[in-house]
Design a protein that fits this description.
102 residues
Length: 102
C-alpha cells in the first residue's frame, strides 16, 4: 500500500482540481443560462470529484485500498451516469432562424 500512496494522492488531487474546475464552470454557466443540462453536468462532475475525495480519504486514512477503489469506482460510475443524462436533457427552446431579405 505504501508503494502506491503517493501516486494515489497525486491522481486524486489532479482529479479534484480539474474536475472541480469543470464543475464550477458548468455551475456558473447554469446560473447564467438556467439550462438543466448544465446543471446536470455540474452535478455529474461534482459527484466524480466527491468520489475521488471519498476514495482518497479511505486510501490514506483507513488504509483499505480495495475499499477505497470500490467506493471511488462506484461513485465515479454514478457521476458518469449523471453526465450521460445531461446529454439527453432538454435544453432551452430552440429559436427559429428567419431570413431577412433586403
Amino acid at each position: 500500500m505504501r508503494d502506491y500512496a503517493l501516486f494515489i494522492a497525486a491522481a486524486n488531487t489532479a482529479t479534484v482540481l480539474t474536475g472541480g474546475a469543470v464543475a464550477l464552470l458548468a455551475y456558473r454557466a447554469f446560473r447564467r443560462t438556467g439550462s438543466a443540462a448544465l446543471r446536470a453536468v455540474a452535478v455529474g462532475f461534482g459527484t466524480i470529484v466527491g468520489g475521488s475525495v471519498l476514495g482518497g480519504g479511505v486510501h490514506l486514512l483507513g488504509g483499505a485500498v480495495a475499499l477505497g477503489v470500490v467506493l471511488q469506482s462506484t461513485v465515479t460510475a454514478v457521476g458518469f451516469g449523471i453526465l450521460l443524462y445531461s446529454l439527453y436533457t432538454e435544453t432551452a427552446a430552440v429559436t427559429e432562424k428567419t431570413k431577412i431579405s433586403i
